[in-house]
Amino acid sequence: MLAGRAARTCALLALCLLGAGAQDFGPTRFICTSVPVDADMCAASVAAGGAEELRSSVLQLRETVLQQKETILSQKETIRELTAKLGRCESQSTLDPGAGEARAGGGRKQPGSGKNTMGDLSRTPAAETLSQLGQTLQSLKTRLENLEQYSRLNSSSQTNSLKDLLQSKIDELERQVLSRVNTLEEGKGGPRNDTEERVKIETALTSLHQRISELEKGQKDNRPGDKFQLTFPLRTNYMYAKVKKSLPEMYAFTVCMWLKSSAAPGVGTPFSYAVPGQANELVLIEWGNNPMEILINDKVAKLPFVINDGKWHHICITWTTRDGVWEAYQDGTQGGSGENLAPYHPIKPQGVLVLGQEQDTLGGGFDATQAFVGELAHFNIWDRKLTPGEVYNLATCSTKALSGNVIAWAESHIEIYGGATKWTFEACRQIN
Known about the structure:
Elements: H1 2-20, H2 46-95, H3 126-153, H4 157-185, H5 191-220, E1 228-232, E2 240-243, E3 252-260, E4 268-275, E5 278-286, E6 293-296, E7 299-302, E8 312-320, E9 325-330, E10 333-338, E11 352-355, E12 374-382, H6 388-395, E13 414-417, E14 421-424, H7 427-431
Antiparallel strand pairs: 1-12, 1-14, 2-11, 2-13, 3-8, 3-12, 4-5, 4-11, 5-6, 6-7, 8-9, 9-10
Helix pairs in contact: 3-4, 3-5, 4-5
Signal peptide: 1-22
InterPro entries: ConA-like_dom_sf, Neuronal_Pentraxin_Related, Pentaxin_CS, PTX_dom
Keywords: Calcium, Coiled coil, Disulfide bond, Glycoprotein, Metal-binding, Signal
């Protein structure tokens, strides 16, 4: 009797399993399980059903993995195609030395892009490069004129002979530049010839810079420490000056300087101050076709300066952390003002102050496209807002003009690098 009851139990259990199965996994197998007489036989099928659910999950996971594998293979193929296209573009840009490198953005750039651009001039159109070299020659001639004035007051046969030698070299370089320009106009110049000519002229210019600097050193002991200027003749990422002293924490400041430039588009970056964690703590920049800007803690205000006319201009910017109020002066006259420029943010101390380059990292990360081209002098910083009268005294070379109480313009405070030059400058003689 017990055997008959067990048989009936298996039959009923089989019916429960068949009724509950929604999928067909092949031939049906009947599993007999002993259950108590009072138990629900259909509930006993849960164990068997759990195994089938596990099998279904495994199959779904396997299908998902196969789909992801196909996606990865497709993406790899796309990456190979893009890599091949990029390689073709790079090879084409290498073969075309006239193709310039354009940068997107409004003047800020990504860190780590400061590779040496000593060879970047070869990617500049030859005519533009020769024009820059011509400007450099003119700068050298002006420096020689200053040396002539010095030699008249301090006659020295050695100084005169060196001056004559340098003058003859400059004349020869001018002839080379003019000859090259004529060749370009006639369409006879080739990339290889352009490179050879550029290397020859740059080598001669480097030699001239060194010889003239040696002569100018003789003047150093006989002139006041603030009667000098810095010259940045070419747009490079290796020519700059560094102020030996850092800035203290400041809740207000005034920064003033004399500038002379005819560079276009944009005169570049007269100065930049970077601190750990913030490369744009305090920056003055005119990049591309944008107006000149002052940056404080990476916040920007546009300034009304127009200075790229090849003439000397005196500029000042004042700022206070209270409400971020700022004022801009050109040649002693206020030309603009505003507020909400980095309000309640003090200028941080222990940074690096660079003249002629914009920093993307602390003390480096220079980009040739943002370099200052021109001449700079009498760079002074105060830890307070100067009055309009004090600014006017500076711009007119008054005897009442003040020197910066944070950074004062002095040769002993400046280190120069990469071919930037120092030579005699007296602002009042230039503007009177």
